[in-house]
């Protein structure tokens, strides 16, 4: 079995230091932006339309380019900050308790056994008998 390639850069270093890659198609230079793919891989990605001259006729073509760093998908994910403070001027509010939401918004919950968004509440106590 082939040996897996180990990625030589960390996610943090890639995010901090990676720059767009320039490619050239005919006489047009195109910057390919840095990308962190939804799969977790790191690299560069381009998807756009350009024109190429074919015997004096400009034809539209779709360019699709993925440059993926081999082994980057297996890199550990960066740890989220332990506790991020809210940005200046932005307060965080705790969600209201079950009964407080109805009182605050004026919305009451459906009675026991009634349909709520297509789901039955049979057997639910909503605080009674607890």
Describe this structure in words.
- With 130 residues, the protein is mainly beta.
- 12% of the residues lie in helices and 32% in strands.
- The chain has a domain at 11-74.
- The strands form three sheets. Strands 3-4-5 form a three-stranded antiparallel beta sheet. A two-stranded antiparallel sheet has the order 1-2. Strands 6-7 form a two-stranded antiparallel ribbon.
- It is elongated.
Order of helices and strands: HEEEEEHEE
Shape field: elongated
Largest sheet: 3 strands, antiparallel
Separate helix tally: 2
Structural class call reads mainly beta
Q: Give the percentage of residues in beta strands.
A: 25-35%
Strand order of the largest sheet: 3-4-5
Termini gap: 59 Å
The counted number of beta strands is 7
Give the rounded overall mean pLDDT.
74
Break the fold down into its secondary structure elements and pairings:
Layout: H1 11-17, E1 21-25, E2 28-32, E3 34-36, E4 42-54, E5 57-68, H2 98-105, E6 115-116, E7 119-120
Antiparallel strand pairs: 1-2, 3-4, 4-5, 6-7
Quick structural gist:
This protein is mainly beta and 130 residues long. The chain contains two helices and seven strands, in the order H-E-E-E-E-E-H-E-E.
Keywords, please?
mainly beta, disordered C terminus, two-stranded antiparallel ribbon
């Amino acid at each position: 079995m082939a040996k897996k390639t180990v990625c030589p850069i960390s996610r943090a270093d890639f995010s901090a230091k990676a720059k767009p890659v320039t490619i050239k198609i005919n006489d047009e230079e195109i910057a390919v932006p840095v990308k962190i793919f939804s799969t977790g891989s790191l690299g560069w990605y381009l998807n756009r339309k350009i024109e190429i001259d074919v015997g004096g006729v400009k034809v539209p073509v779709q360019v699709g380019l993925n440059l993926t760093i081999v082994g980057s998908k297996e890199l550990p994910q960066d740890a989220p900050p332990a506790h991020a403070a809210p940005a200046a001027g932005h307060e965080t509010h705790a969600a209201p308790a079950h009964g407080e939401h109805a009182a605050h918004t004026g919305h009451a919950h459906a009675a026991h056994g009634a349909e709520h968004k297509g789901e039955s509440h049979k057997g639910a106590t909503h605080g009674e008998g607890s």
